[in-house]
Amino acid sequence: MRITAEELAAHYRQAIWAGQYAVGEPLPRAVDAAQEFDADRKTVLDAYKQLADEGLVEVKRRAGTVVTYQAPMRWLGAERYSRSLRARGVPAFAADREASGETWRRTDQTPTVRRTAATAEIADALGLEAGAEVIERARLVRDADGRPTTWLTSWYRISDVEGTEIETSTTGTAGSGGGYSVLDQKGIGPTEVTEELWPRMPSPAERELLELPGSIPVVDFTRRARHGTYVVEYARGLYVGPRFRWTYTTPIPD
Asked: What is the DSSP-derived secondary structure letter of residue 39?
């Protein structure tokens, strides 16, 4: 029985994941792969299309089918928010980069800041009345190659952060260690974080925002950061699923 497109895609998928093909390196020409695996050319092209839909490769004129997959970054657990990292000027997204051996710059974040009326969801999280004015800080995060990895929006009470870098900084991160370092200066730095993550497929608008090819999943994310029991930030975001490997280490309760 001749090899199927699914089997051929699985072969090259494993090879790409194993690092046998570097980013920018082409897969074999369809005619060569067909000869190697005793398959017809259409089977190879169908297999390559599957890989392109998964975001592992991209078909480029004159260059062929080129690998675009990069090994996922390590997404740390609670340690990405540690006060010691904030104190030395490392915001959470940069902690992930450093743990993965990748470089980062503060301008990898592109923020948009405004005052807006709190939705029922945001108001409930911050303990406010629906419609109360809050400060919203949204940012698109790109990797060292300029590709989007994250879209994250945080909301704060005006009384907590009015006039601080969370509201006034419109280039790069807010504060040397990100927004949490600003909250530290206000005496309400986070001491506890609750996060929820779940994978799903992106909407067309989200796919455009994150510049996603094909059928790439995202990880939907919510966060409540507290100083004691007082919620100081509510955040929602999207992570490009294949770009991160989630790692948590937590004590086991009695």
From this structure: -
Name, in order, each residue with C-beta under 8 angstroms of 67's C-beta and a sequence gap of 6 or more. Answer: 16, 21, 22, 23, 24, 25, 26, 27, 56, 57
pLDDT for the residue 70? 78
Tokens read off for 152: 């994250």
Using CA atoms, how far apart are residues 219 and 254, in angstroms rounded to an integer? 31
pLDDT at 171: 92
The CA angle 125-129-134, to the nearest 5 degrees, is: 70
Torsion of CA 149, 105, 78, 84, to 10 degrees: 180
User: Is the Cβ–Cβ distance between 183 and 228 less than 8 Å?
Assistant: no
pLDDT band at 150, cuts 50/70/90? very high
**Is the separation of the CB atoms in 224 and 231 below 8 Å?**
yes
Q: How far apart are CA 223 and CA 9, in angstroms?
A: 37
Question: pTM of the prediction?
Answer: 0.82
Are 77 and 247 contacting, i.e. CB atoms less than 8 angstroms apart? yes
Are the CB atoms for 48 and 59 separated by under 8 Å? yes
What is the C-alpha to C-alpha distance for residues 165 and 167, in angstroms, rounded to an integer? Answer: 5
Q: What is the mean pLDDT of residues 218-225?
A: 96
User: Rounded CA gap, 118 and 134, in Å?
Assistant: 6
Structure tokens at 178: 């990100």
